[in-house]
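User: Some background: our group keeps a shared notebook of sequences we're curious about, and every so often someone picks one and asks for a predicted structure to add to the entry. Today it's my turn. The entry only has the sequence so far, pasted here. Could you supply the structure so I can complete it?
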Amino acid sequence: MSDQEDSLEERQELEVQALKGIFDTDFVDLRDKDVWKVKRPPEFNLKLRPNHDSKGKSIMRLSTMSKHNLSCLIINLQENFMKTVPSF
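Assistant: Of course. Here's the predicted structure to add to the notebook entry:
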């Protein structure tokens, strides 16, 4: 691998680490579920939920959150991500 490819792979993994830090338990790295541990570009699931209701009131309690919508966004990064747009 060239230095540029290594750098691209490192940058992708740093991006994944940043998203893990931001989304915490709402971030799932789908590569962790692979049976064969073959290196591949990042693919992950982000759970997106509101942090307030329509009146602007905070809904950070889990019991209240369950009454609201939850969206799951699966993101597949290409091998040349940072040079191309990810697919959703």
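Suggested note for the entry: Residues 3-76 form one domain. The first helix runs from residue 3 to 23.
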